[in-house]
Write a structure and sequence with these properties.
The chain is α/β, with parallel strands linked by helices. The protein is built from eight helices and eleven strands.
Length: 253
Amino acid sequence: MNPVVVRNVKIGEGIPKICVPIVGISGGDILSEGRKARDAGADMAEWRADWYEDALEPGKTEETLGKLRKILGDIPLLFTFRTLKEGGEKEIGSRAYAELNKRAAMTGNVDLIDVELSADSSAFGEILQAAHGCGVKVIASNHDFHKTPSKEDMIERLCRMQDLGADILKIAVMPQDKKDVLTLLSATLEMRSEHADRPVVTMSMSGTGVISRMCGEVFGSAITFGSAGKSSAPGQMEAADLKKALLLLHKAL
């Protein structure tokens, strides 16, 4: 498996990288949260642009991206507009989704872009091509906030992302019980050991699934998400606590 290198951060090698989400509503809130992510020692930061009140105004989004880039310095920045159907804050049409992501990639201020597997196939391809043309990596993602699909289903989705040409493959699911967490971890291990030639990112959400956010180095998940105040999904730990857990586990391996 080849790691993905972004600003000297090797995703898919060693301890899972901690990505801190930025979920501010106003421009000022976003920049404040960017400083918190930087000060929390994040390996990466994710701007959840769907939370931004002016996200559908390209000029304002690009202006905020430029300011956020300056605050984060050399910390890799992931741009994500999570759609309503995948647990995000805003509805957006397929064409607008494609244009927003392509324009973000072309600013030179983002290092990675999240593209949902459920996106229209032509939109997915357009964003992927535009991002790669700008040297921006693509994380293909899929979210289920209601259940945990079967192991076979999750592996099939991750393999589809790989076949589409995404650089990193991500799936997040909701457990109904502890067995569902084991299903997610089993799918992660099998995907990583038998199918993937690039980094895989998986998580089981809520308190029930919090263990999945800490054991990526064992089962094969390359990125874990930790908060620096506000969280973007159920079950996220504070980044500082998550870092301690990851280091303790790494020492024992």
